[in-house]
Structure formats: C-alpha cells, structure tokens
Amino acid sequence: MTDYREQQRKRADVDALKLKTGSNVWLMRRGATLANDAAETALFSKTLWGGVLSTGNLLMLEQHISYLNNSGVNRTFTFKFKYGSTTLFTDAAVYGTSANYRFFIYRIKLIASGATNSQLMTVERVVGTELFLTTTLFAGVATSAEDSTTDLAVSMTWQHSAAAATVTVEERLTLANFVGAVS
C-alpha cells in the first residue's frame, strides 16, 4: 500500500509529473510574476524526457498572461518559446502606458515531424483588453532540429525593455497537453 502522504505530495507537485509516450497528461501551473525586472525570465519551463516528443507526438501549450504598463511611457516586452537550445518563436511588442491590464493567450503546438530530430511548431496569439479582443494565427511554421531522444526543456520566457515597478507580467495559467502519435 502506498503511503497517503506520498500520494498527496505527488498530486500537489504538478511539475514532477512524468510525461510518458502514449499518455495524455495535462499539466497546469499558475502564479509566476515578472515585475521591476528587465532580465529574460522563464514564466514556464518543463523538461521533456527523452523520447516524449518522438515521431508524430504532439505537445500543445497554452499560456494566459496579464500585462500592466502603468509607467507613463511606452514599453516593449518580448515573449519567446524555446525547445531545447532553439528559440522557435519570438514576439516583441510595444505597448503604451495604461492603468488597465492587457491580456495575452499564446497557443503553441509542437510536433515531431517524420523523425526524432525534426519538429514543427505553430503559434496562435490572442490579445485583448476589457473591451477588445484580437486573434492572430502566425503564418507558417517554425522548425527545429533538436534530438528529441534526449531530455530537452520547453520554456516560455518574457522580458521587459526596462525595469519599472509599474510594469508587470503575470502568468495567470499555463496548460500543457501531450498527445501521443498523431496521424
């Protein structure tokens, strides 16, 4: 019989879940904040064990972010999606100062395409305020040649153009869904 405390620890420690080939596992995280800092910071990072993204397997990530620039000047923030040592997607945007939050959702699909060292990725971005929403599906796909038979990190990073206590990026929710062999 498994110790009850051990079961509770496993349930609480979402980041320690193992993604196994053929499984359909949701990981959920929330709560990371980037404020008063101009360094590139990973608001989400997960190591995929070797073989998880084998041929035909799909990883779907969705990150919900709130952004506040109440600094009095326009600021640039940069979002990046990385797989292993490859930055597959970069989105840099300038936003004017506002006392209202802006909301971002990034939906990323990463699939091993034909071989363990060939990946394709698509990104969809939803941007909005309390009054307005717009969706952008970025044309085309990015490719990488990472060896998915080894352990590789997947990360979503954010960076402000300048540190300011009145500029904040807050991770509201990050979901990860692994889908075994997609045909």
The count of helical stretches stands at 1
Give the N-to-C terminal Cα separation.
39 Å
Structural class comes to mainly beta
Give the radius of gyration: 18 Å
Q: Classify the oligomer.
A: single chain
Shape: elongated
Largest sheet: 8 strands, antiparallel
* Low-confidence blocks of residues: 7-23
The counted number of beta strands is 12
Give the averaged pLDDT, no decimals.
Answer: 78
Report the helical percentage.
under 10%
Q: What's the order of the H and E elements?
A: HEEEEEEEEEEEE
Give the percentage of residues in beta strands.
Answer: over 45%
Q: SSE layout and pairings?
A:
Blueprint (H helix, E strand, L loop, with lengths): L3 H9 L13 E4 L3 E3 L5 E8 L9 E12 L5 E9 L2 E10 L6 E14 L2 E11 L4 E5 L4 E3 L7 E9 L6 E13 L4
Antiparallel strand pairs: 1-12, 2-12, 3-11, 4-7, 4-12, 5-6, 5-11, 7-8, 8-9, 8-10
Structural descriptors:
single chain, 183 residues, four-stranded antiparallel β-sheet, elongated
Describe the structure in brief.
With 183 residues, this protein is mostly beta strands.
How does this model look, in words?
The chain is mostly beta strands. It has one helix and twelve strands. Strand 5 and strand 6 form a beta hairpin. The radius of gyration is 18 Å and the shape is elongated. The N and C termini lie far apart (39 Å).
